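**Tokenised fold:**
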Amino acid sequence: MKRNVIPLAREPVERAVEAAMRVPLTRRELLKGTGVLVGTLGLSSTLALLTPSRVWALEMQALNTHEGDVLLAFTRQIYPHPTLDDAAYAFVVKDLDGKAAKDPAVRQQLADGVRQLDQGAPGSNWTKQEPSARARDVASLAGAPFFETVRSTAVVSLYSNPIAYQHFGYGASEGDGGYLHKGFNSLSWLPNPPAVDSGPIPSDT
């Protein structure tokens, strides 16, 4: 059965969700160890209104599917945003997979980290771990090379993709002009500064 999925690409949201594509997965690719992450956009996601399908998929070249699932869950534990779609976190896995494909040492480090997390988890699968146990496991790895590789990748990848921009309402995804004229000062969680401290109003001239 064929399903449309949205591509996980670093493009403006409108272009990224317009062109739906499917990720073909054959038995040969499974035998090669190619991993695929598949998920569904939440019903409350604004992206779900823009796509022909709520299903998304990410094909990996170095990591297998289980490793991708664990890394996504691990990243969500480090940078928790309960209402942010897994599709945004998948960008972190995408970049980790790219690093692993280029560097065997990174590939081994990620595999060892996932294996360590799986030890003692129900069914040897860390994604089945209880939330409190996940928090404990992540805290125990803080500062370790595996933790730092994921953290340092995630702090960039998670917050610089179109899905995160859409979720957090960050206008800079449209370029400096978009940010300047579409809500650069809409910080509802901060008080307005005194007019004397606000400085000159930006203009295009």
User: Anything to note?
Assistant: The longest helix spans residues 86-102. Residues 62 and 104 are 9 Å apart (CA to CA). Residues 1-33 have pLDDT under 50 and may be disordered. The chain has nine helices and two strands.
